[in-house]
Every structure is written in structure tokens, then in C-alpha cells.
Amino acid sequence: LLTLDHFKLISDWYGLAILELVTIIKEDWTPTLIAKRMRLSKIEAENAIDRLLNLRLIEVTADGVYRRIAGTIMVHSKVSNEAIKNYYTGLHERSLDSLSSLTASEKVIGAQVFAFDPAQIEDVREMADQFLLQLNELAKKGKKRTEVYQAFTNIFKVTE
Description:
Elements: H1 4-9, H2 13-24, H3 31-38, H4 42-54, E1 58-60, E2 66-68, H5 82-101, H6 121-140
């Protein structure tokens, strides 16, 4: 469980994505290679790596390779928070970009509109958390995990 103060340091959308990149895909990662793979500037990659190192989520091995040392990262907040807003704003921007930049074979997209009892929102939150955990478990079973994907749920009221 990452505190909100710590999460603030890596709240750009790519902080956790870089953590996953150095975890799964075996490469001799450098800031330049990470920047290229994640479509970031080199300074963005360097800053994110420094923050991940300072938070002890990754380390540099004796041979200079970045390695994840943190388990699954979770952040929870019952109140609105700038770090969480920043993270999800970045995710939404990347999601919007994916509509035109990725092919159908590179993404899964869907929507459902329904009338809903607002008293059930905590049940929905629990279902969404369970779905994301199940998706993470499925991902761990992959034999050729060469890409980093981002998943999030956004179930929101559209009526006033």
C-alpha cells in the first residue's frame, strides 16, 4: 500500500508503467531506452526512474540493470486528491490517444449505459477492484509478456 504522499511522486501516468516495464520485460534498461519505449522525453524517464529508486520500488543491480523490488502497488483514498487526479488525467489522455493511434488488435474498448441505483455504488467499486485484480492475475500467466498495457475502470454518472 503506497501512501498518497509517496504516490504523488510517481503520479504521472507513466510512473507505474515504467515500474511494470522494468519488472516484466527483460532488457538492459537505460533512461533513453525507457523514454523511447514509453514515448517520453529522456528527462521524464530519468525523473520517474529517480523517484522509483527513491521510493525503493526499484533498485539498480550490480550490473547496472533496473529491477523491481516492490510487490503489487495499491493506493486508496476516500477523498479527492491532486495526485490521484493527475494520474487519472494522464490515463484518460493516453486512452483518448489510443482511439486513433492503436489498432483493434492492440486494445480492448467497450462501453455500457444503464439505469442504476446510486446506493449500489460501493458494490460496483468492489466489482471493479475484483475485475482489475483478476486481470492482473491473468496477465501474470502470459508466456510472452513483451508489452505494458494500462487498464482502468471509470463508471460515472451522466445525468444531473
